[in-house]
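Q: Predict the bound structure with zinc ion.
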Amino acid sequence: MCLCCIVPDSVLEKLLQDRKLPEEARQGLSQTIKLDSEIRKLRRQASRLTSFEFAAKISIAPSPAIVVYDCNHSQTLPGTPVSNPGSSRDTTIKTVFSTTTKVSDFYQQVFGRNSIDNAAMTLLSSVHFGDGYNNAFWNGTQMAYGDGNGELFVDFSRGNDVVGHELTHGVTQHTLGLNYTNEPGGLNESISDVFGSMFRQWVAGQSSSQADWLIGSDIVGPAARQRGYSCLRDLANPPAQHCLSPQPKHFSSYQTGMDPHLSSGIPNHAFYLAATKIGGHSWEKMGQVWYAVLTSGRSPGMKMARFAGLTRQFAGSMFPAEPGVLQAVDTAWSTVGL
Ligand SMILES: [Zn+2]
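A: Predicted complex:
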């Protein structure tokens, strides 16, 4: 189970079974799997060390500093600091800087949140992590992006939903503090997909009906496309064949111990159903309801039914004059069995 990365190990392992892939590409996959397991250990440690109380908020900057480091294809984090990343000639550096800045703007303008910790925490990203590394991750303190091997996956910074997904893991760590296993793990992954997708829609100015609701469509490489895959996950249709990582969409398929990247399909689909039912911009109503639950206090062991119940509660209290919001939330969760 890869708990923090955008691409679950199961997908990498599935691709590894494909004997028609060039040997080099398969070696790259198994290297990524090995590395991910080391990264997970660090992630768990960082999670344990996260402080949720700020005893003295002395002086907090109005918005976070955004810094980019270059790993130069090494696996040493964070790498070398890049001066003026916004005007770098390296497109990956430039893209990560501008997209991270936009994610910060998204949280600030849409949810009134100042960075991951709501206290202007510096947003640190490392690019060109590893050699053809097929993943991107939040390790508890920073983001890191691989270049992909160019066949199955391309430069992970190209997906603005990927950047939004990873940064949201940081937000969850500092809010609900959800565990990475079982139901809280599925909720954790889903919150990253939901806010990653919403961020992508916000950047494009799309309404719920215009959005494609896909995750990772910009990082799927030519060899994966040839095999019929166009994304990692699809909130509109979680079990779809075009997903590298098809997911269940009904709670009756949930099993204890399920990879959070799979069980997240259930709450993902509920958000999609609620947002498209109410229409308009997903971040204006449903996003606000989901964010209210996300910031409702620390609850590492929260289960899906409890999360669903809280969204119903907030939908009613936040939009008392619009009963359609609660109705949409209620129907969406009932449809996925919660
Ligand atoms: Zn994730």
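A: The pocket of zinc ion is lined by residues 4, 6, 165, 169, 189, 192 (CB under 6 Å).
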